Amino acid sequence: MGISKIEWTEQTWNPVTGCTKISAGCKNCYAEVMAKRLQAAKVPGYESGFEVKLHPGRLNQPLNRKIATMYFVNSMSDLFHPKVPFHFIDRVFKVMSETPQHIYQILTKRPDRMKRYFNAREVPQNAWLGVSVENQKHGLPRINVLREIKADILFLSIEPLLEELGEINLSNLHWVIVGGESGSKARPMKPQWVESIQVQCKDQNIPFFFKQWGTWGPDGIRRSKKANGRLLNNRMWNEMPVLSKYKENQLLKFF
Fold it and tell me: Would the pLDDT of 250 be above 60?
């Protein structure tokens, strides 16, 4: 657990690490690259590299933090990977329920399994559920499954955006994040793809958060992620879902 450089969260919490690739968005997985580096550095918990591994010893980490914090859950994995048993996921959500001062962001590429999990369970009020969307073939069907789950906040992480998505059904959703790919093998993202999503969010009153251009700038030139920045049409887009009052003041300072 630690402070995150991800623009739309504050800290990460990884009670599970490791994953397997299932779609185009996984091709250049940053978590896999990081896991292999940590394995080479002999960091505890990454002895098996990017193989799925449960970490019961990390479950209580949020319990030790009293300050209200926004956590990205499993930045190094997918909580709903088939190798993560439901009884372990129960333990993860139990911690969330016991720490109502925190907000937990759970992102998956496996919404069907997430839906099955919540068929017999309620989503804690402080848990935000999201799906990754990278293209029409793999990403758009995930949205349809996500909207069938009853939760206070349902969101999309459209990153890396690999193609024009066209008209998106955003009904019953509460937040959209968009970002380009970074890294030496990054695939470019065209400005018109991003602008189309931003306009649809505006038209449907859904908060829009632009995370980054990544390795390829809006002008199609390859640079460092930092050099390309986060401006879309000359402004920052840091919109967030409507937050409960106990968290709102802190996050407004952060963002």
Answer: no
Element (H, E) at 19: none
CA contacts within 13 A on the Cβ side of 152:
13
52: three-class secondary structure by DSSP: coil
How confident is the model over 78-105, as pLDDT tens digits?
999 999 999 999 999 999 999 999 999 9
Percent of the chain at pLDDT > 70 equals: 94
User: Residue 234 corresponds to which tokens in the numbers above?
Assistant: 């000359």
DSSP 232: B
- Using DSSP's 3-state secondary structure scheme, residue 210 falls into strand
The helix/strand count (H/E) of the chain reads as 7, 10
Residues 6+ apart with CB under 8 A from 115: 145, 148, 149
In degrees, rounded to 5, the angle at the alpha carbon of residue 93 between the alpha carbons of residues 36 and 67 is 85
